[in-house]
Amino acid sequence: MPESVRRIHQHWPPVGVLYRMTDVLCIVAGLFVASLEPQARWTTAEHYFLAGLSAIILYYFVAELSGAYRSWRGVSTRREIFSLLFVWIFTSFLLLGWGFVTKRTHEFSRLALFTWFVVSPVLMICCRLGIRLLQRILRTLGYNSRNFAVVGVTELGFQLAKNIEQLPEMGLKLAGFYDDRGDERTPEVPQELGRKIGNLDDLLARARTGEVDIIYITFPMRAEERIRGVLSRLSDTTASVYVVPDFFVFELLHSRWTDILGLPVVSVFETPFYGIDGMAKRLCDLVLGGLLLLLLAIPMAAIALWIKFTSPGPVFFRQRRYGLDGREIRVWKFRTMTVCEDGTDAVQATKNDPRVTEAGAFLRRYSLDELPQLLNVVAGDMSLVGPRPHANAHNEEFRQKVEGYMLRHKVKPGITGLAQVNGWRGETDTPEKMEKRVEFDLQYIRQWSLWLDIKILLRTAWVVILGQNAY
Q1: Of 327, 321, 331, 449, nearest to 379 (Cα)?
Q2: Same domain for 120 and 156?
Q3: Is 432 or 469 the better-scoring residue by pLDDT?
Q4: Which residues contact 359 (CB under 8 A, 6 or more apart)?
Q5: Is 288 inside a domain boundary?
Q6: I need a labelling partner for 308 at 20 to 30 A (CA). Which of 78, 188, 242, 393 fits?
Q7: Same domain, 187 and 213
Q8: pTM, rounded to two decimals
Q9: How far apart are CA 285 and CA 243, in angstroms?
Q10: Of 119, 140, 161, which residue is a domain's last?
Q11: Which of 254, 276, 387, 418 lies closest to 323 in space, CA to CA?
Q12: What's the pLDDT tens digit per position in 288-347?
């Protein structure tokens, strides 16, 4: 066999080693900057050494546990930065906790600790951005880049190529589309993506000589025999081969791959809050929820007195709702009606509802009746942002009328949500209205990020001020 046929490309190893080295340097550099603070001169070199060593060990432990050193090829820079910041924040809490337990925190000035905890992550972010920029420059120059081909002139193949094109940091260059079917049986390749290069024989020839490094098969899942045939022929090459299943035919809910003793499986309906994402979400709820409780304690006390002295009945109302995975939770609210309905025939509030008290009308208009749910957030039953929980009676009614209704319970319910800031707040008296709310709820689950939560919280303030669709 000619040498050109047997040639195998050697690619750069993952940058995980570089990440680990730069993280150590950033932790040490941040500690050095903190030691320059005037009040830090009383701290001995031994104390700095122990603090730095403890931070490195804890940081590595959290980073490895959360997968922060996995390959970030094809993942957005913003997501990588969020992951890095969470690892450092969590490490800082562990470090401070250990310092309080061992009574070592008094050996460092507060300003020095603050400087360290701020400077180190800033340096880490700069290093990450620098590494990404270097990768992009090198790949633009032709280094560390790989050629990929798409088997299957299909809409899925076109979408895949477009997605890769939007991620230049992946370092992948499209070599072309290949398909054994004639032009009359395949859609036209978009002009910006090039053209159909040839059939499988042409692809095999290029893969054997190393001109194509990665091959994506984008035939529909029903074409099992064709996929098997392509895989059989490509086994005579050293190219990396991936099958891209057309799962878009399903209504996916944050899908992810896993394996069971080596057998790969893909989730179709799953929660996005696994590993570091779940930890970040919970930490955000605890910190922001706790702060809001402290800031709103006096206004909430005033509201409680207003309710107590203007209408008979309890100040608070706890209603049964579906929580995470459909488990029942008790949601706190300020009482806004003359009744406390929590049965199978609970009736939604309507415009000019006679059951709503005078104080309740004001509280409901500006969603102030929901403030006690901060207690649910801190307790872990709810989140600041997520699908709004409905009364159990309404859950049982609409789960039979709205497809995918129960999937909204794959995450914790929230005080506010994507549906509420997009105009679907208030009464849902028809299946059509509930369908729109569920549509936004599922969109939130698919597209979740901490940044999305922040945007929803900011938009919620404006929606509450307007007081629309709340009665």
Answers
A1: 331
A2: no
A3: 432
A4: 303, 306, 307, 310, 311, 336
A5: yes
A6: 393
A7: yes
A8: 0.62
A9: 38
A10: 140
A11: 387
A12: 999 999 999 999 999 999 998 888 888 888 888 888 888 889 999 998 887 666 655 555
